[in-house]
From TrEMBL:
<keyword id="KW-0472">Membrane</keyword>
<feature type="compositionally biased region" description="Basic and acidic residues">
    <location>
        <begin position="213"/>
        <end position="226"/>
    </location>
</feature>
<feature type="domain" description="YdbS-like PH">
    <location>
        <begin position="114"/>
        <end position="173"/>
    </location>
</feature>
<feature type="region of interest" description="Disordered">
    <location>
        <begin position="207"/>
        <end position="226"/>
    </location>
</feature>
<dbReference type="Pfam" id="PF03703">
    <property type="entry name" value="bPH_2"/>
</dbReference>
<keyword id="KW-1133">Transmembrane helix</keyword>
<feature type="transmembrane region" description="Helical">
    <location>
        <begin position="57"/>
        <end position="80"/>
    </location>
</feature>
<dbReference type="InterPro" id="IPR005182">
    <property type="entry name" value="YdbS-like_PH"/>
</dbReference>
<protein>
    <submittedName>
        <fullName>Bacterial membrane flanked domain protein</fullName>
    </submittedName>
</protein>
<keyword id="KW-0812">Transmembrane</keyword>
<feature type="transmembrane region" description="Helical">
    <location>
        <begin position="86"/>
        <end position="110"/>
    </location>
</feature>
Length: 248
């Protein structure tokens, strides 16, 4: 009976969230499926989301923020109540409803952020997507990546997650500390960040593509000198003139 009582709130909360998700996805046209990448024959496509620890990490940060906000609001309400008890009673209910609304909206927003974050990898490139109101999607080819590194703060270490940062030519840190710029991609909330970093480095070393998939020619063929028939004919005429001049 206790197990049933414990599962009912989770099931009810899941149904409420699913309903909210359908409404927001319909309004903002947010796909729940991972983004697609161009795929060639015999090429593998792998998609993944942040680790569950990333969701707990976001919720923990939000809980701290809400605790601070509630404390400030309570102090303000107490000051108003001391100055005017009648006014304190009048604003008590609106303040409680406002705080409850912030809590509900923030809790759902965090879950939506987690569910709309996708990382898709092929043998030639990666595509990162996140966001609901403003969908950010960036595609990075492995051949253009100049540096790959991991980042892990103390709180991330506690939740067992880390970030993988990939930088392309001319890239650098995001000026606002955001998820990505035109020269940088952030893969956040990964439980196996070191393994993913090494896998990306292996793909960089093995990559022989440019852009989104135009194949390079082998290097020995690139060094091979190619002449058109017209150029060969001109060279033969020059060779003939040189030989005639030397005979004279």
């Amino acid at each position: 009976m206790n197990a049933l009582n414990m599962s009912m709130p989770e099931e009810y909360g899941g149904r409420v969230y699913e309903g909210i998700w359908r409404i927001l996805a319909s309004w903002f046209r947010v796909p729940r499926q991972p983004p697609e990448l161009p795929q060639q024959a015999n090429e593998t496509i792998a998609s993944r989301r942040p680790a569950p620890g990333f969701l707990r990490y976001l919720r923990f940060g939000f809980a701290i923020l809400m605790a601070i906000l509630c404390l400030v609001t309570a102090v303000g309400w107490l000051a108003v109540t001391i100055a005017s008890p009648a006014l304190g009673l009048v604003v008590l209910l609106p303040v409680v409803l406002l705080m409850a609304g912030w809590l509900a909206i923030g809790w759902v927003a965090i879950r939506l952020r987690y569910d709309t974050t996708w990382y898709v990898f092929s043998d030639r490139s990666m595509r990162l997507r996140r966001g609901i109101w403003l969908i950010r999607e960036i595609t990075i080819t492995f051949e253009n990546i100049q540096n790959v590194q991991t980042r892990q703060g103390p709180l991330q270490r506690f939740f067992g997650i880390a970030d993988v940062i990939v930088e392309t030519a001319g890239g650098g840190a995001s000026p606002q500390g955001g998820p990505s710029t035109g020269h940088q991609g952030l893969i956040e909330g990964i439980s196996d960040a070191a393994e993913l970093r090494d896998a990306i480095r292996e793909k960089i070393a093995a990559s022989r593509t440019t852009g989104l998939g135009d194949e390079h020619e082998p290097r020995d063929q690139q060094r091979e000198c190619r002449w058109s028939p017209q150029q060969i004919a001109v060279l033969r005429e020059i060779d003939l003139l040189l030989r005639t001049s030397s005979d004279r």
